[in-house]
């Protein structure tokens, strides 16, 4: 039996945009996530940490369906919230998944605090959430 196809917008060139939160370590985890998504058939691209300093939006966003914002830990909720607000202003119809890879405690509280659509505490959780969204049509 063939696998269920992705929704059409997920078949595009780059439906997943993985963005590093603040550091090169955040960028490394964003790269790992993009590789894992690619192994599951989702096209993803990675951008470095640039959401905190510029007045202009630094990324190409055409065809993006979900943004995975990658932070190694949860030590910067104010920065996370600011980055998510910038993303929402630029991409109001795009889902924002916050990947917080060393979060201790309740991800639901963090999700509410920073206003993300969803929070993943592991790379596998993020892959699962992206796949669920891609098949949800």
Descriptive report:
The protein has helices at 24-39, 77-90, 107-114, 123-135; strands at residues 16-20, 44-47, 66-71, 95-100, 118-120. The protein is an alpha/beta fold and 137 residues long. It has one domain (8-135): Rossmann fold. It has a five-stranded parallel sheet, with helices on both faces. Strand 4 (95-100), helix 3 (107-114) and strand 5 (118-120) form a beta-alpha-beta unit. Helix 1 packs across helix 4 (123-135). The longest helix is centred in the first third of the chain and has 16 residues, at 24-39.
Structural class: alpha/beta
CATH homologous superfamily - what is it?
Answer: Cobalamin-binding domain
Unreliable stretches:
none
Mean pLDDT: 87
What form results from the Cα inertia axes?
Answer: globular
How many distinct domains?
1
Please write the string of helix (H) and strand (E) elements: EHEEHEHEH
The CATH topology turns out to be Rossmann fold
User: What would CATH call the class?
Assistant: Alpha Beta
Residues in helices, as a percent range? 25-40%
User: Beta-strand percentage?
Assistant: 15-25%
In DSSP terms (H or I, runs of 4 or more residues), the helix count works out at: 4
Short description:
With 137 residues, the chain is an alpha/beta fold. It has four helices and five strands, in the order βαββαβαβα.
Topology at a glance:
Blueprint: E1 16-20, H1 24-39, E2 44-47, E3 66-71, H2 77-90, E4 95-100, H3 107-114, E5 118-120, H4 123-135
Parallel strand pairs: 1-2, 1-3, 3-4, 4-5
Helix pairs in contact: 1-4
């Amino acid at each position: 039996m063939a696998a269920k196809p992705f929704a059409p917008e997920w078949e595009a060139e780059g439906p997943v945009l993985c963005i590093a939160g603040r550091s090169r370590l955040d960028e490394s985890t964003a790269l790992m996530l993009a590789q894992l998504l690619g192994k599951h058939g989702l096209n993803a691209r990675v951008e470095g940490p640039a959401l905190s300093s510029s007045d202009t939006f630094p990324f190409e966003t055409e065809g993006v369906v979900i943004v995975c914002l990658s932070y190694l830990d949860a030590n910067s909720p104010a920065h996370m919230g600011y980055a998510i607000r910038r993303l929402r202003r630029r991409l109001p119809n795009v889902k924002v998944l916050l990947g917080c890879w060393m979060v201790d405690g309740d991800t639901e509280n963090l999700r509410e605090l920073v206003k993300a659509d969803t929070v993943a505490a592991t790379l596998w959780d993020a892959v699962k959430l992206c796949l669920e969204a891609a098949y949800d049509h």
